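WARN retry 2 of 3 for item q-0093 after timeout on previous attempt; input resubmitted unchanged.
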Amino acid sequence: MHFESLIFDIDGTLWDSRALVAEGYNLQLRDEGMEEFCVDAQRLRPLFGKVMTAIADELFPHLPPRERYALMERCMERENRYLEENECRIGYEGIPETLEALAKRHRLFIVSNSQQGYPELCIQKLGLGDWISGHLCFGDTGTSKGKTIRTLMERYSITSCAYIGDTQGDFEATLEAGVPFIWADYGFDTPAGYALRIHTPRDLIALEQEGRL
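OK item q-0093 returned
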């Protein structure tokens, strides 16, 4: 088996930004006098991987939809600024080395349910710029992750690929996109199915050496 390309999720797969994201959200919520809705990493764990509108529905159900989504936009903009200012030493061990090795035989991409600017921050902070060929997110497409994967595949003429992620939502996205799912079981969730499973990022190199990627 040889996948021409590999597509990565971000949160729970490349890094764990929950604590920093919570801090960024909370800065905005405090500025707006909404301290009672501040969050922590544990509160965000089951929400990571969902699109921003779904996260807003969970965090701010008391607000009318238009107001809650606007607040979510402001929180995510503040989050981006906070991550930009922070050193972000939150990447999983072995990520840069693993992607460098994989890039010798595969094109590497990122698809996330995040806001615009978040994939770029991840690439910048983890030093992945030499190995990532492209990325798309919910903020770019406004569609489900499965459709975003397909859009990326069409845009970059990807002939075969697998998606590496950690959640049930990631697994469902691969079913929608019609691509194999590689479960990063060190992440945030336990999906209902997977084609391959890794316990650390470096396990991808072992799969490569076994001819399974």
